[in-house]
Amino acid sequence: TAHPKIDPHTGEMFFFGYNADGRFTRGISVGTIDADGRLARYMKFEAPYCSMVHDFMMTSRHLLFPILPLTGSRERAEQRLPAYAFEPERPAMIGVMARDAASPVLRWYEGLPCYVFHVLNAWEADNAIIADVMAYEEAPLFPRADGSSGDPSRQQAFLTRWTFDLTPGCKVFTSQRLCEIPGEFPRIDDRVAGRKHRHGW
Hints:
The protein is mainly β. The protein is 2% helix and 41% strand. The chain has 1 helix and 14 strands, in the order βββββββαβββββββ. 29% of the residues are buried.
């Protein structure tokens, strides 16, 4: 896990790993370390496709796993094409799991293709989850599946708000750009991690 999450109210630490069943697999592991440093939970689930998952989201009640179209492919690697590449024809898929789930049951939301390296924060709001992320229209640093370099004008991150309606039957999330200044490596005061924040940097 590049970015484990610590709940400042409970002391729990949440972590995950992609390629959990071997290289280029859809397996994702997820675990919880309790406030005393003991492994409280560890499980695995299968993502819709093999994705490079750099960061994830935590709220007071949920964990969110972004499966985004920066994909891994053994077939491409064996053909000497990029092992990891951006596939703009694939949708963004965000899996939402209850933090205290006893089994890996996720609710999947679909959105427009994009990539996110880093999350600012996420929180619960009425019957929804709100997540502020640094979203790229197209992943930088990696080529497209055919080896081409992609469109540099689409390879900048902007602060973007994702909204997940928790009403039964909702299967898509909305995306709203909050700022027209590109940036990266967002931060909040960690004392409000997983709860609504007032300021971000």
